[in-house]
Amino acid sequence: MRTDELQQGRQPQRDFELAVEKKAQRNERRVLVRVKNFGQALQPLNLNTAAQIDLEAAGGLLRREAAAVVRYREQNGRFKTVDDLKKVPGLDFKKIESRRDAVVVM
User: pTM for the complete prediction?
Assistant: First the structure.
């Protein structure tokens, strides 16, 4: 299902297909997301194990910020608290702070 079909009021079809638009700084891309296990709660994002792409998508970080988190984690070891991310150079900690309920450090 295309995004313009959703905007016209048509309902998502098979597998609860949802169209999501995500704007990057320099380009616009459209991503089709298939939602499975509809109705289950989302798992919090573990900042010690999350891949760069997960930090971008679920954490709301820019590509360079997500890369900085992964690089810092690889060089300095696991984070002990969410506040440890304040030490990551190039990371806007306010983004993490705004999603504090959706991120964990385990």
Answer: 0.61
